[in-house]
Every structure is written in structure tokens, then in C-alpha cells.
Amino acid sequence: VGRVHAVASHDGASLGMRSSYSSEPVWALGESVDGTLVANVGGEIAFFGTSPRWSTRPQPLPSTPRAMCVTANSTIRAVAADGVVRDLHLASGRWTDVASVGDFAVATISSDGSRVATLAGNTLKLHDLQARAVREVDVESGPFDRIRRLGWNADASLLAIIDRDRLRVYGRDGNLVAQ
């Protein structure tokens, strides 16, 4: 047992070892049954995945993220406060613009990253990013600050709007389904 400076993966790639949350050295290292590396870092047990990752620090997102998801092709998709949907490509660490959703107060993104819903005042916008289509729906709401959350269900067929005293559910076509 000694300080570990680097480890070679099964394909020969060398991975530098350092803790992202502690200045303590990595003192012991082993491989678990599923291929995850297990280490003793400053008295704590830490687990390191050996899946591919970028070797450079990713670019910062140009605007504050308001909603995010990880897509099936291992990119991070974010809806930023500036109204732009962007993808972070993990291989390069670079952001690319996907679509503009305009101004909004509240936003959510579907778990697969294909749909974004935004709310500004009484206007709900349902963005289908694949079809590049937008459906606008006038929703009843109380004062602007009453809207709390938007959320898609697992397959993005339903969208819930939750405020202080009620829940409304809309289909992806913009029709009210339940309240």
C-alpha cells in the first residue's frame, strides 16, 4: 500500500488519481466486481468509474442553467436563463446551441432532452426540439409569483404545473388533461 499517482485502465489508458473534494492523497486502490475502482482517500472510501470522459476542463455555460438532463448520447442538455438550449459534448467539453426558447420565468426539460416547457406570465410554451415546433397555451394562473414548478412525466407525454394551491396537467398537445 502506498500513494497512488496514476492507474492504467484495461485498455492501457493512464488515469491520474487525485481527489476532487480533498487534498488528501489516494493511499490504496482496488477494483470491484463491476470494474469500478475503489480507493481510500484521506480516510474516506471513494468510488471511481472507469468509463470514458473528457480529458479537458469543460467550457462554462454562458448563462445560468435553469433545467438540465443527460441525454442518451451522453451529452448534457441545459436550458439556460438567456433562453438558449445548449448541449455539452462530453468528449470535447464544448457547448453548442440547440435552440432558442425565448424569455421565461420557469422552465423544465424532459428526461430525454427532446422537449422543453417554459412559462412566462400566463403563456405556457411547449417546445418539441426534434420537430423544431412550439405550441403556445394560455394558462390560468394567479399572480406571477404563484407558479412554482413545471415537470414532465417519464415519456414527456404529460406536463404538470404546480403552484401554491393547485396542480394542472397538460398533454404535450397543450390540452388540459386534469386539475
Structural summary, described in words:
With 179 residues, the protein is mainly β. The protein has strands at residues 6-8, 14-16, 26-31, 37-41, 44-48, 65-70, 75-80, 84-89, 94-100, 106-109, 115-120, 123-128, 133-138, 147-152, 158-163, 167-171, 176-178. It has a four-stranded antiparallel β-sheet with strand order 6-7-8-9, with no helix packed on it. The chain has a four-stranded antiparallel β-sheet with strand order 10-11-12-13, with no helix packed on it. A four-stranded antiparallel β-sheet has the order 14-15-16-17, with no helix packed on it. The protein is globular. Residues 18-22 have low confidence and may be disordered.
End-to-end distance: 61 Å
Main sheet overview: 4 strands, antiparallel
- Share of helical residues: under 10%
Computed structural class: mainly beta
Rg over alpha carbons: 21 Å
Mean pLDDT metric: 77
* Shape, per Cα inertia axes: globular
Unreliable stretches, pLDDT < 50, 5 or more residues?
Answer: 18-22
Strand content: over 45%
Number of strands: 17
- Tell me the series of helices and strands, N- to C-terminal: EEEEEEEEEEEEEEEEE
Q: So how many helices?
A: 0
Strand order of the largest sheet: 6-7-8-9
Describe the secondary-structure layout.
Elements: E1 6-8, E2 14-16, E3 26-31, E4 37-41, E5 44-48, E6 65-70, E7 75-80, E8 84-89, E9 94-100, E10 106-109, E11 115-120, E12 123-128, E13 133-138, E14 147-152, E15 158-163, E16 167-171, E17 176-178
